[in-house]
Amino acid sequence: MMSRNSDLKSRPARTPPLGALKAFTVAARHESFALAAEELHVTHGAISKQIGNLEEILGEALFVRRNRRVFLTDRGRELAMKLSAVFQDLDNAVADFRGNQEPQPLIVSCEPTLCLKFLIPNLADLKSSTGLEVKVLAAGGRIDFRRDHIDLAVRRNDFPIDPQLHVKELAPEFMGMVCAPSVAKILEQHADSVPALHTRSRPEAWQNWRLSQPKSPRFASNVIYEHFYMAIEGAMAGQGVGLASIHMVASDLASGRLQALGPFKPDGTQYLALSASPYKTDTRHLIFIDWLARRMQAHIEKLQDVCHSTE
Amino acid sequence: MMSRNSDLKSRPARTPPLGALKAFTVAARHESFALAAEELHVTHGAISKQIGNLEEILGEALFVRRNRRVFLTDRGRELAMKLSAVFQDLDNAVADFRGNQEPQPLIVSCEPTLCLKFLIPNLADLKSSTGLEVKVLAAGGRIDFRRDHIDLAVRRNDFPIDPQLHVKELAPEFMGMVCAPSVAKILEQHADSVPALHTRSRPEAWQNWRLSQPKSPRFASNVIYEHFYMAIEGAMAGQGVGLASIHMVASDLASGRLQALGPFKPDGTQYLALSASPYKTDTRHLIFIDWLARRMQAHIEKLQDVCHSTE
DNA sequence: CATCATAAGTGAGTTTTCCTCACGCAGTTA
DNA sequence: TAACTGCGTGAGGAAAACTCACTTATGATG
């Protein structure tokens, strides 16, 4: 009951011959060996043998031969799905290399909250000011450029960065205390009646804040949110005082839904743009990074106003 | 011999031999023919010839031969990037098919505003209630499952759906007028002093609304936002009255940042989950769709409260 | 500086893979 | 029933891929 592939000599799990896989995807697309043969400029016998060979290697049937036709099995269709995507990628890769390809939208990976509070709302601006088409993939933590087909990732350098990657600094992180305007008034009198809002994804945030800002008020209690986004929502709803990144609450501060309690301070980390391709062959990367860096710098400059207004 | 030679000239862009491409990616990874030869269990001569052949087909050098080493050219590196990703995909596809592969996070494509106001904020809940890891790709309009490597797409059926796709209905769309609570008070007296907020991405929204709700008030003027998200922001900031989907403003209504003006009404469109794989081989799809449908249904049920409170 | 080791290019010859051809088979159409 | 269609198969052959042996070029070594 281990693997039934293992009874095929001592061949552990090497990938089947590429030609056979290619032949299979074409045959699967037509559900016909004859048409596949025509497309590949060979005889139907060639296709038949390639696929028979592949089935033997994989140890299971990919087609059901019935009457004078062939039908994909469910498993065969499953494989065909995956493979046809891969071979299409391959054709695109080669065509792209040869230069006959229109530019694809850039895919940018970004942690969910930054995505939510900053990137996506500004996509329309990006499009209109640079003409760049961007798709955003909300995904925190580790990055796998290959698997997720990401062009760029935006991350903070609070974890070790793969030295293979190409790194560009965007802007420093600035953290600060925020709350709803109504809560700010209460705080002036009864500071200890308001809870501090914590986030599970940045558990050490308040602790670090207190280390660098010892004068900041003590709060009544602690409320823990599952997600950074929730904490910001909570703060807006008057649940307490949150500790937030300027880049995530810039628009909420601007609209007055949130109010800053004292100045925002750098926490030592930086936002970075990470790219798998170390060469600046692609201008779109540069355009996007430039736009993003400017935007983030603008947040920080505006910050002066925010701070003065409450100090 | 005729078929081969006859299309030599008319061979504009056929993909190079797969073996040569494979050999190239391995050689590129090592920047060494000898190591590549070892990995592929052939002699270095075989690699040398495969790559020479590939360079001839492509019509440009991929390696610079210098000293007793080979170095990738920039172009060669560019090609190697693309190809190594593809071949890794291929290995994954086969390994996945054979069953030796851990489950990957689901990638869901979704229009930006729904992403923003509903999906991403609820990702943490999804994770904790189903254990499912999901990444969200914010991308409106046409869907290319292949190119974007999407597992599922969430869309409204306001455009023709590719009949090849597997479709599951999630919930009907409900539209309604919303504004900031402060604006609601003003409206009771001076309905015509408040503008209606339009969105460029759904230009016909107000018109359709008026057709089905002839009694709804006329507003002073029209403000057009570039993006649906902006219109909602505008409404929250007291800029006027927006026309919004219940699924996008559910949380803002719940928190009181927005207020409904009269009942929400179905606009005839549905939210759909689209999948490229027509067979329910993947339970994760079902889990996600089930979760999403329940969530959206909950919005609609809650709607009764919202409506009564203002009628 | 001669010598050795290493890495790659090359031409001839060989092995392997893949393809074609011709035919058989079963079901479908006329 | 005969003709046709689409696939499977075995034998033989073409093409692709590989090996081998040798060459070149260049660092490293004593």
UniProtKB/TrEMBL annotation, chains A, B:
Keywords of the record: DNA-binding, Transcription, Transcription regulation
Domain HTH lysR-type: 16-73
Pfam family, one: HTH_1
InterPro entries linked to this entry: LysR-type_TF_proteobact-type, LysR_HTH_N, LysR_subst-bd, WH-like_DNA-bd_sf, WH_DNA-bd_sf
Signal sequence interval, chain numbering: none
Family of this protein: Belongs to the LysR transcriptional regulatory family.
Protein name: LysR family transcriptional regulator
Organism: Rhizobium lemnae
Record lineage: Bacteria, Pseudomonadati, Pseudomonadota, Alphaproteobacteria, Hyphomicrobiales
